[in-house]
Amino acid sequence: xxxxxxxxxxxxxxGELGYIYAQGKGVPQDYGEAARWYxxxxxxxDSGAQFSLxxxxxxxxxxxxxxxEAARWYxxxxxxxHADAQYFxxxxxxxGQGVPQDYGEAHMWLNLAASRASVADQKTFADxxxxxxxxxxxEQIAEAQRRAxxxxxxxxxxxxx
Length: 161
Description:
Layout: H1 2-7, H2 11-23, H3 31-43, H4 47-59, H5 67-79, H6 83-95, H7 103-116, H8 119-133, H9 138-150
């Protein structure tokens, strides 16, 4: 049923099919097939699929490792309010992976991630934000906090996987 819905262009089904292939749930595990379905959903604005595609680029799963491409996909999902994408994008800015190193940008994304995280992830995300804050001046922190307060999510298709 997922395949039928995905073949008809339903982004949520395409993202779910990507997850099914990535995990090998009822089908042979196939990262290439997972990436193909994630891309279809991501191109339609599915933030979960955008995050998953970014993760695949960051890890180099069945595709060349490409931090710039990972950051691009994380940014699309982060812009929609996907907390995990905000966290990983913040880490990329802190480390200068695929993007210029920018502690202010890192702090803003990590702050947003911590405020939207599941209970299980809140401490990890907040600890990362504090790690970045140690490298910043009080003025830089205040500016990053202001930008986080003023941030508004962009609309997208969904916030699935």
